[in-house]
Amino acid sequence: MTDYISVQTDKTELGLKAAEYWLGQYEQAVKNRAVFHVVLSGGTTPKLLYEHLASKGFADRVNWKQVHVYFGDERFVPHDHADSNYRMAKETLLDKIDIPIENIHPVEYRENHIEDCARAYQQTIETNVKSWVNDIPQFDLVLLGMGDDGHTASLFPDTEILNENQRWVSEVFVKKFNSWRVSMTYPLINNARNVCILVVGDNKAEVMLSVLARSGATKYPILRIRPIGDLVWILDASAATLVIKQGIPSNLSKLT
Ligand code: 6PG
Description:
This protein is an alpha/beta fold. 31% of the residues lie in helices and 21% in strands. The protein is globular.
C-alpha cells in the first residue's frame, strides 16, 4: 500500500483531478476484470467530482454498463430526502449518465427497520461484488470525504461502529446530528484495492495536519483507513494550508 497526495489550487481543479483519477481506476478495473465496482461518498465535496464525471469530457469515455455504484454511507432517510446521499449522487451524476438502474445500489430505506436495511445492504454487496479477498468483497475504488472531526463515511468519533469488525455494513446513531446512519465499516473499506479521500476547506486544515502526520489515531477515525491498495489524498489548497507550511510528510508520494 502506498500513500499519495495531490494538492489542487481550488475546488474546480480538485474535481478535475479526482475525475482523472477515477477514470484511471475505471480503465484499470475494466481492463483486468471487465467491471468497476466503485463506492461513492456523500456530503458536499464529492459533488465537484460527480459534476465532472457527468460532463461530456468524461462521461463519454466510460462504458457505464461496466460500472456498479454503491454508497459508503447513507443518512437513514427516504431516497428523495434533502439529506440523502443517494439523492445527491442521483442529481449530480446518476441521472446524467446511461448507467443501467440495476448497476446502482442505494441503501434501502424502510422506516424503523434500520438494522434490516443495513444487513440487506451487506447482502447486496455480497451478491454483486465478485472479487473477494480475505473472504471479504473487494471494491475497486472507495471514495471518501473527511469531516472536521476526522470522521469518514459515518465512522464518527466515540461511536460503537468503530469497534465493528464482523459486519461489513452497520447502523450507527450519530449523537452530534441526533440521527441514524448506515455505514460501511473498517473491514470492508480497508479491503478495497484503492481508497481516494477528497478534502476541501480551511476548516479541515488543522485536522489534515494531524491526520497526515498520523498523530491522534484514537481521536480521528479516518486514521484507521488503511486499504490493501493505495490511499490517495486529493486536497484543495485551503485544506492543505498547514500541511504545506509544515512540509508534506515523507511517507506521502506525489500523485501524478
Ligand atoms: C456524509 C459523508 C461524510 C462526509 C464528510 C465530509 O454522509 O456526510 O459520507 O463522511 O464525507 O462529512 O462532508 P463534506 O464533503 O460535506 O465536507
